[in-house]
């Protein structure tokens, strides 16, 4: 870190360090740019050499194809079937011969003509014949008895590798020609072979029209820029090869960099295609993927840039450290010595530095220091005359200092007292506000707790009274149900005993009617008894809701009450539902009894009908008995719930919580007592303030007395100062003799 701080100090010292940084960075950029250009040129040379070699390989490949076609033409020209077919102009024989040849040499073609150059048969289009091919170089040479090979354009095959040979009969007379070779236009065989063997993409052009290529259809958009007549125009016109891919201006350089970073760059080469007579038929285009070379260029660029940056940083560090240790630090030492001399410290000589321009400056400053020493010597003689006078002045000043010290002490006492008074006053105001707010808050809290506890107690008492009233009502209902149950059992027993006695049915009917009237009366009593139960259940729910609202005001202390009151409200809802079920069962009993009563009114009509009605009466009695039993069971359950509620821990918890509220109220009262004691402390603090004020008044009187004494001593010091002025004038005359 120390070296790093030294480097920063050197780099940022004034403007020179910044200029050094800028200079080195500019130099580094130029160096990196020059190296990059050299690497780029080297890469282009390698790429151009590779593409040139690929072009030579392609030419060699085409030459080999021409040689193969020549050899095939010479071999086929002596075939017996071919000679016989031409002599007899047998199309079937020639077609069979051509078909066998096409199967033997895929991608090749065969055209057979007579001695006039008229087509007898061709493999490219068997149905087309009779046209004259004597204008083609290889056919014209064959008709003249020569064998010629090269690249030419056929009438139907287009651009192709072609060789023509004469066909002679037994006497050596030329009876026709055979033209054979390998198609270029319309097929990818030769293009794909070149790509597989040489590793380049290739395209053949008939004039400026592409007739065959190894480039895939989805990759053709990458090569649109290469198929521009402005690039290869000189190839078709002058027959000179052209390479394309090296940027020649800013726009091409930008496109080249964009392709290197984001695209698929290629280096292209255009070469003319000529026939045997030297006529330019078209050209072929080869493109080599430059990804390898571009990656190599990227790696070289990154390495060189990193090395250049490292060299620049090291150079800057060395230069700045040299400036720091050999230039800036000596200057700093010199400036420090000059400041020391200027401040009057002449006890030590200047620090030695290097014997260069800085050494001259040091020697000049050293001579200045020597002159200062001489002047100081003269000043010392003048100072001796001031010693005696200063002694007298010191005695006077000691008295003044003593008086001033006393005045200062008294002033400090007054200042401290005033500060204490201010602090105490502000503290008293704050304590007063805090006491008022605390008393108001505690009073309000105690009142709220008392009101809330009272409301909760009232609601709990109401709920308890309601539950007790509810238990009493249940007891009455239970007694009525037991009485009803006994009567129903008696009715059922009497009805069962009187079934075989038909004569006594009418009397039994009347007694049953009385019993039913009693049952109806008792049921009405039961229904009337349940109406207050419903009212009590509704009141319990209403009181529970009010109790929940009151407990919500207590915050966290009321959460326990809220849970208990919620359980009470649930029990009241259960009570209300049970009473509704009981009333529904009583209504069903009324319906059954009313139906039986109608049957009793018709007892005089027919005894058989009475028997049937008697049976229905028995069933109704059984239903009533069951309903009464159900009512008894439910009422017993309600009584147990009510007694459990009265004896539950929840009621006890409510009492405990109310006791806790009372304890909190007592604690608040104790806090109020503490506040009263704090108010007494405030009163005592006010008394202290009064005492401090008295001390401040007395201190002020003492200060005024001391000030009068200091004024007397100051007059004496004025006389002494006049003598000192005379001596100082003499000293000033001596100082003026030395000029800086």
Architecture overview:
Helix 2 packs antiparallel against helix 9 (291-342), helix 11 packs antiparallel against helix 12 (559-601) and helix 12 (559-601) runs antiparallel to helix 13 (607-647). Among the domains are: 39-294, Beta-Lactamase; 451-649, Up-down Bundle (Four Helix Bundle (Hemerythrin (Met), subunit A)), CATH 1.20.120. It is built from 14 helices and ten strands. The model has no long low-confidence stretch (mean pLDDT 68). The chain is α+β, with helices and mostly antiparallel strands. The strands form two sheets. It has a five-stranded antiparallel sheet with strand order 2-1-5-4-3, with helices on both faces. It has a five-stranded antiparallel sheet with strand order 7-6-10-9-8, with helices on both faces. Strand 9 and strand 10 form a beta hairpin.
Question: Short summary of the structure?
Answer:
It is built from 14 helices and 10 strands. It is α+β, with helices and mostly antiparallel strands.
Give the helix level as a range of percent: over 70%
In CATH terms, what is the fold-level topology of the domain at 39-294?
Answer: Beta-Lactamase
The major beta sheet can be summarized as: 5 strands, antiparallel
> CATH top level of the domain at 39-294?
Alpha Beta
Order of helices and strands: HHHHEEHEEEHEEHEHEEHHHHHH
What is the 3D form? flat
| Beta content | 5-15%
**What is the count of DSSP helices, taking H or I runs of 4+ residues?**
14
Quick check: average pLDDT? 68
- Please list the strands of the largest sheet in the order they lie side by side: 2-1-5-4-3
Just name the CATH architecture of the domain at 39-294: 2-Layer Sandwich
